[in-house]
Amino acid sequence: MNLEEAGSVYSPLSAHPASLNQPEANGWGEESQRGPAPAASSADDSLLDAYSRAVTGAVKRISPSVVNIEVHQSAGRTRSGERRGGGSGFVFTPDGLILTNSHVVHDAQRIEVTLADGRRMPASAIGDDPASDLAVIRINEARVDEPGLTAAALGDSQQLRVGQLVVAIGNPYGFQSTVTAGVVSALGRSLRSYSGRLIDDVIQTDAALNPGNSGGPLVDSAGRVVGVNTATILPAQGICFAIGINTAKFVASRLLRDGRIRRSYIGVSAQTVPIHRRVVRFYDLPKETGVVALSVEEKSPAQRAGVREGDVIVALESQAVAGVDDLHRVLTDVRVGVSCALTVLRRTEKLELKIVPEEAAKA
To answer: Which of 261, 265, 248 has the alpha carbon at shortest distance from 303?
Structure first.
């Protein structure tokens, strides 16, 4: 508020400067002059308290599930014969299964987990997927009723909105959690993992990612995990990227079943986008979102099938594709080498293309 605005607000007082020195004249002049300031201050305090309560409440709910992960890897001909690394993770089942980043535990010879209560326990890798930078490890000999094992509540990354409050938390040293808060800055980002493959549908937030917090949870204001924090991109300073929890659920289920992910591949870089309601109604589409092809790789199955940049994929073999997560789910190992019907929207035209997915190269 500038001085002119202030003058216009308090014009009755400014018209009679002498009254400023005579608050007793009407018995309420002093209160009327001082009244607005406490009200504004109170409003600011209430806004701050609401924000603080949201962040502290989310941290209180997720902190018991966050762990520190220490990794020992072979270092060749060195004096100690090994090198150490690590990051964070979070318990997602009561029997000690932990989600973290693949780059945290990849090629680990030995893994130790420090729980929120400070106890150190050995762990082993169930499987890791460098293509999505996700991994699952298990605390050795953990019981369902093991003290200190609290499973995190998992949310739905498909429901995230830009501007939504999120909190990034990690346990880099095993004794004290580190917390940063911010908002969802963007959805549907693509990042290149350390294996060289693009990770699609990544969450970007301005909650800074501290060293050692990689693999920790990104949670909403209710303390539900909506992403797995990753720090594979060196220029990503002052911001945080996270793999959507919906993708993490799918990857974790396959790692638990097979120990690895065998997936098919069509060769597009993709992003989830809304579809115009008129188009949805005209073609009676089951979903109001689809997957737009941002780019098509040379000599890929998608290029051979005639997919173009800007095409929106809405189905594969009659299975609706509402987002990148759905596309990942349908491009399983059973699709490798099998001719499939790929339904796309090209501008306002609905096309059905024949595509033969290939097996994705091992990372």
So the answer is: 265
Residue 49 shares a structural domain with residue 141:
yes
**Catalytic choice (128, 129, 133, 220):** 133
Q: Which domain holds residue 155?
A: 38-258
Final residue of a domain: which of 258, 290, 312?
A: 258
**What average pLDDT does the chain have?**
81
Would residue 253 show up in a list of annotated catalytic residues for this protein?
A: no
The number of folded domains in the chain is: 2
Q: Which residue has the higher pLDDT, 281 or 26?
A: 281
- Whether the CA torsion 315, 316, 317, 321 is positive or negative: it is negative
Q: Is 326 among the residues known to form the active site?
A: no
Phi/psi of residue 148, each to 5°?
90, -5
Which secondary structure element, helix H or strand E, spans residue 293, and what is its range? strand 289-296
Domain match, 247 and 295 both? no
> Which of 258, 290, 315 is at the close of a domain?
258
d(CA 242, CA 220): 13
Annotated active-site residue 206? The verdict is no
Residue 68 pairs in a beta bridge with 88, 114
**Which position among 65, 88, 102, 103 bears the catalytic label?**
103
Q: Are residues 320 and 335 in the same domain?
A: yes
Secondary structure of residue 75 in the 3-state scheme: coil
CATH code of the domain in which 197 resides? 2.40.10.120
Contact of 346 with 308, CB cutoff 8 Å: yes
| 73 shares a domain with 183 | yes
User: Quick one: 254 and 268 in the same domain?
Assistant: no
- Phi and psi of 201, rounded to 5°? 60, 45
Percentage helix, strand, coil for the chain under 3-state DSSP, each rounded to 5: 25, 35, 35
Answering whether pTM is above 0.85, one says no
| Separation of alpha carbons 166 and 227, rounded Å | 10
Q: Which residue among the candidates 132, 157, 177, 214 is catalytic per the annotation?
A: 214
- pLDDT per residue as tens digits for the range 67-103: 999 988 776 554 555 667 788 999 999 888 999 999 8
Q: How many CB atoms lie within 10 A of CB 177?
A: 20
